[in-house]
């Protein structure tokens, strides 16, 4: 299709990788995104502390460089061989999840890596023959420069900020332009640029790293983190995009305000409650980073609003934790998302001890929410801009009012209440468990009556209790958020049909139907409106694709979901910031058919959801360690002939899966690593899109082969009982295809009839 971007040439992972995890070099060779000479493309890597490096291919200093907190501390670098500058604009370059490689015409190789957890970066220049090698470090306004033995020290400009120390693994001389030149002909030199709060700290860090192999160590550490969980399918382009999504997600995990997850770059370098917990499963749970997941949850709990006397936001976790502003709590869904992810963490790990800590968070949260926001129907009321669609005009009226009862908030509220009841039961507080379960039941009964008319799901209830039936993607979260059915599956199926058929383009799902009078075809369109007017009125949000894939896969429409994932993978590998995903896309492609990325150039929940889909929705792995069960609800695309997966859970345990499709049969080879026998439960998709369940026990050291197809199942050749679990809803959903985006013609859209049309509607209180 003309509006799909072209995938840049890349080194593909060999098909043999489906059978086994590759080594370090092969893994990164397969991930490398190649950029031809003359093409400037943005890339970004993080230090997992409080900094990131933004650079551009074929440029020495374009981009923000290395930014720590809000200060740019390093701009870039240039290299020379025998005094002759290497021309990066004529060189082949590869972007990698820790930095980049540049191969010059004469054979010289530049490598740059930002070093995780070090406040440092390393640059290595190699040459095929002995030569005088020079690395020039670039700073916009360096402070006083001095040499102290084997280290070059740079004082903070203006007398405040970070000290810089530069060291190398070879003897060097340095000039006033900060060109470090080897004292004799060599074939390689590694230069480390380190930062610290004092000259001594920076110097010690630089020298220690220069004496080691900093780039090799960074590659190995990143490899270990990215392959703790692993999925390699028969589609090598997807494998590459998936590994980049995992790497990009990991980049946002920082320590600036305690362990947290930045929302996006460059503007959202804060820990946002809602964003953090939407991103957490794809960032830390499917990747097996369970200690970090617990740390994120515990850290946010520290900021819970426990002020006395109690205010309207009592019990909530923050909307945003940042260094520059006071902690704010104006979000209705941050705490429910957190409780959901606390429960999911417990299911992945079996960490029942953590339930006590989360119970202490749940008590004030429900006290405040029930006192201030629960209505007579048991639903959760909220301000019109306190959902994820939170843009306001001059911090006042909402651009896209969704109060006082948005659809996904009720799914989150019900899920939070059920989670709270579990936490209360674990704590022995059966009275609270009964109270919260009863309120969950009331909300569930009220919801269907008030939101669903048998054909259309409301996006919200207005102040006058009327149903707002704008077609938005939020209704799909009725499928993805609850751990058990909040509304009947038949309703979920019809919701999926309604939302997907109206909103889903090949490149993502729109935040509002293109047929709605409030639809804005472009995010940034200053001739007609402020960009926030379009923010949630049609603009495509990358993270929304995640719950769309979840809904499609639940009902057996994984082949359409797979087409979407392939197209999103092309965005990761070739659109905007290489290896990452932007916050937004314009709803409609340009006249040339090209997609336009917008918003932040790298967004945490966008890549996190892409990673989550691979493990939780296609492979379908969702462990339930509370009942010692490794649960699979797979939806394997027809295009996958096989895959290999390593799936971590618990305290260092994992299950390896080798899948192969043979005709209409599916064969699963399962190997359990750990000390405990586990129950394995499958929800198998049948040919008619119904699901059947089966279960068996799996012991460590005793592999099992599950074969399904034709309404039968065997384990190690022995028949296994299949029981009906979910009916087919293919008749309710019908055929699903991508929506065709309209052409951009300003006269075709009511919101572009004149300047600030939507703003006028909102300010006149006419928004419906």
From TrEMBL:
Keyword Nuclease among UniProt keywords: no
InterPro entries: 6-hairpin_glycosidase_sf, 6hp_glycosidase-like_sf, AGL/Gdb1, GDE_C
Source superkingdom: Bacteria
Residue ranges of every copy of the Glycogen debranching enzyme C-terminal domain listed in the record: 253-611
Keyword list, A-Z: Signal
Signal peptide range: 1-19
Keyword Repeat: no
Protein's name according to its UniProt entry: Glycogen debranching protein
Organism of this sequence: Massilia mucilaginosa
